[in-house]
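Each record in this resource describes a single protein on a pair of labelled lines. An example record follows, reproduced without changes.
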Amino acid sequence: MSYIDSNLVGNEAVLYRGKVTLWAWLPWLIWGVILGFATIVGFLLIPLGYLIIRSNEAGVTNKRLIAKSGLIRRDTVEIPIKKVSSLQVKQGIIGRMLGYGTLIISDVGAAHAPIRYIREPMKFRQRFFEVQEELESS
C-alpha cells in the first residue's frame, strides 16, 4: 500500500496521483551493469535504484496535497490545498524531452523538499490548480 493511500483520513479521496518516470532508473541501471562486471556488488545497484526511484510519491486529494520521497529516510509534505501558495515545476533539457521533472511545493513562502522524477509534472500542476479552484469556488 502506498504512503498516500495509508494516510487518507475520513472521507478523503485521491483525485490525482503523480507517477514516477522509469527514466530516472536509467543511471542506476547503467552503473549497475558497468560495476557489476567489475564486482558482483555492482548488480545490487539495479534493484536498489529501482526501489529508491519508486519510493517517490505525489498526490492530490480532495483535502490536501501529499508528497513523499525516500526509501529508508522519509521526507513528507502534507499541506491542505487551500494553504498551498505555489507549486513549481523544474525540468532540465533531458526532463523536458523525456517528460519528467521535479515538483517543489510551497506554503506561505516556505519551500519544501523537492519531489523528483514525476512523470508529466505540468499535468500534475494543472490538475492541482483545477482542484484548488474547485474547492475555492465551493
